[in-house]
Design a protein that fits this description.
eight-stranded mixed beta sheet, Rossmann fold, binds magnesium ion, alpha/beta, binds thiamine diphosphate, single chain, 254 residues, two-stranded antiparallel ribbon
């Protein structure tokens, strides 16, 4: 039997994301990646946290679980431990993963459990109407930072690399083809594979929309970036202003 993109598509309801939301790219890319890999939808469990992006499993015709806010990763680890044959994919936001769930992010990387981790990084708590997330930019005005955010953002890719994550990548919602390609490699990876997805929130983070990212993203795989060099990966992760590297930053096979 061969699977078509629509076999992963739950069409009873349409996504309720805003028009232009970066989450559409994640949804389209994930369906494409699973279809290209010809993975049986019945062998996939998508675990969402709580947030706009974390609602993605509602529109996939696979098994799914919605966990508590910040608890998608340990829930996914439990699913994988219970049945290692399943493809377990976490879809959670930057608030979910880098805020309330940050401890789980770090320890799951240390445990190197064989799951795929997709983090929608939009710099805000989208679902609760735009408060600053841990990756919000310094000075950003949001409902929770009315005079501008006082702190520098967390650098989750640098954190993942220095914590020992063996598959660290960055995708961009403006390039769904690249994103699907990264997801395919992440799903096939033997160990925890992590993709941070730059994702404009068109409603609550207007300064960091598609025009901002479009001028800055650079696909590392179109350069001479040595993916197995941890120090070069860290160097790429720390570059976040003028040019923003996308693609696989670090890859260490077992
Ligand atoms: C324990 C707990 N704390 C707070 C909330 C409220 N809450 C729901 S979603 C959310 C933030 C979502 O932001 P993010 O994870 O970045 O996802 P996005 O909506 O941006 O995709 C918060 C704080 C909650 N549901 N549960
Ligand atoms: Mg968010």
């Amino acid at each position: 039997m061969s699977w078509l993109p629509n076999d992963y598509f739950r069409d009873q309801r349409k996504p309720n994301w805003c028009p232009g939301c970066g989450n559409y790219a994640t949804l389209v890319a994930l369906r494409q990646a699973l279809c290209d890999l010809q993975i049986d939808p019945a062998s996939v469990v998508i675990v969402g946290g709580i947030g706009c992006g974390a609602n993605l499993p509602y529109w996939m015709d696979t098994y799914s679980l919605i966990a508590l806010h910040g608890r998608a990763i340990p829930t996914a680890m439990g699913v994988k431990l219970a049945n290692p044959k399943l493809h377990v994919i976490v879809v959670a936001g930057d608030g979910d993963t880098y805020g309330i769930g940050l401890g789980h992010f770090i320890h799951a990387i240390r445990n190197d459990v064989n799951i795929t981790l997709l983090v929608g990084n939009n710099g805000v708590y989208g679902l609760t109407k735009g408060q600053a997330s841990p990756t919000a930019k310094k000075g950003q005005m949001t409902p929770s930072t009315p005079r501008g955010l006082l702190y520098d953002p967390l650098n989750p890719l640098a954190l993942a690399i220095t914590t020992g994550c063996r598959f660290v990548a960055r995708g961009y919602a403006g390039d769904a083809d690249q994103l699907a390609d990264l997801m395919k490699q992440a799903i096939n990876f033997d160990g925890l594979a992590y993709i941070d997805i730059l994702q404009p929130c068109v409603k609550y983070n207007k300064n960091f929309g598609y025009p901002y990212y479009q001028d800055r993203v650079v696909d590392l795989q179109k350069t001479a970036h040595p993916v197995q060099n941890r120090m070069m990966a860290l160097d790429a992760a720390l570059r976040v202003e003028e040019k923003i590297p996308t693609g696989i930053l670090f890859l260490e096979p077992k």
